[in-house]
Amino acid sequence: GQSLEQPSEVTAVEGAIVQINCTYQTSGFYGLSWYQQHDGGAPTFLSYNALDGLEETGRFSSFLSRSDSYGYLLLQELQMKDSASYFCAVNSGNTPLVFGKGTRLSVIA
Amino acid sequence: NAGVTQTPKFRVLKTGQSMTLLCAQDMNHEYMYWYRQDPGMGLRLIHYSVGEGTTAKGEVPDGYNVSRLKKQNFLLGLESAAPSQTSVYFCASSSPSSGIHSYNEQFFGPGTRLTVL
Fold it and tell me: What distance in Å separates residue B16's CA from the closest CA in chain A?
């Protein structure tokens, strides 16, 4: 089977940096995706890592280590609007994405 | 482009009643999915479809049926609603993966909040 583990909650201060970790167990691994979901909203795609290393998109970066079955999402210069739930998801090719249970990020002043 | 739309946005049912949730996408995506989201449980896949006329079971299919008669529509049916089916239901669509560098990005609809009394 496939499983993903990520912390259920994280709290960070506005302007700071926060890292949300994700470990996975799966077969046929293509890559790791990250989705953001604000309260009452729909999940939206943030980033995708197929190869080891860091991918940067503005204030957000995502990292993957295939050998460690581990990835993380890094949010810099945190803003109040970054308060949301963040889901990692495994892409195994032409099978549905498998999502983690999500990490609820609270940004405080 | 409207993207992925869901009908209705809210619904309250009594136990035993039936209903159909409609999902429509205008991105010509081959794949469509139905998820339910409950507090602390993340997104759980109910059923999915890899093309018109095809459906497959996901992680939590019991109590639900689906149909994909047209490529752009994916229907989720509850034949006899139960309180355990109170949830937020999301539909999503995507293109087939074209390899390791394919994002396989899923586009989600706004959700349907269903309460079963």
Answer: 27
